[in-house]
């Protein structure tokens, strides 16, 4: 049984905690020599405290939380009010700061929090409480007669924590399944590594799709994006988005369209020769595909498949091909 088999079985049968499963994934990432996979796993295992917020996976935040406000009244009485973000002005991004959170804790910490009997929450700082009190007195926020805002806190529910943990688990499972489909011995000693350009392109695609994307959109092209829909059997299609400059998405699109490894590499070399533009070298290969000199999945290319190849190249280069 391979390490990917162990991972997939553990993730589907709950025989592994999510944090323990990620430790196995660290082995896979290390043997693949994939820095993005290793960095993601380390962040999940150790927490995201040192990570820039714009690098957080979307399942880590910003996450909306309910807010509990304690109003203090006469004779030491108090009342609790559950505040909605739309009940307060959105000055200086107040709602974003005090109704949303980023979960920075390690997976093991989140798992431990789900087992706690104590209610979980993040108290508002004094300046936020004072601001809410002013708005309440000015009738810009909820007010209770003869009561005044005393404190407030964001409530972190167990379902929210379980949702984050499940998101990590599902993404790890999806990534493991796709890696296994393309490279059954990924993660094994002397198995494939991303030093092989073809392996690297496909691993990058699967990682970006499942961990940071959640969709089939890959890459950070600046100007042109081209969506390629390719057949996957009689009734199933797959949509792959190729952004400008994203070689990984380009190569995956060409693979899914049925272009063989040797021909994909030849097209990649032609693009380099043409300065990443659809020049003479690229057009020569397209001509061979059109005439059948280069086969697509062992067959002469149909019109839609040839059009798909052109769309993929257009997305990558940013220059339309007629």
How would you characterize the overall build of this protein?
It is a single chain. With 322 residues, this protein is α+β, with helices and mostly antiparallel strands. Among the domains are: 60-106 and 118-157, no CATH class; 217-317, no CATH class. It has 12 helices and 9 strands. It has helices at 3-13, 18-32, 35-46, 94-99, 107-114, 126-137, 158-182, 197-213, 247-257, 261-273, 280-291, 303-317, and strands at residues 63-64, 67-72, 78-83, 100-101, 121-123, 148-155, 217-218, 225-231, 237-243. The strands form 3 sheets. The chain has a 4-stranded antiparallel sheet with strand order 3-2-6-5. A 3-stranded mixed sheet has the order 7-9-8, covered by helices on one side. It has a two-stranded antiparallel ribbon with strand order 1-4. Helix 1 (3-13) packs antiparallel against helix 7, helix 2 packs antiparallel against helix 3 and helix 10 (261-273) runs antiparallel to helix 11. The chain starts with a helix and ends in a 5-residue tail after the last helix. Residues 214-224 and 232-237 have low confidence and may be disordered.
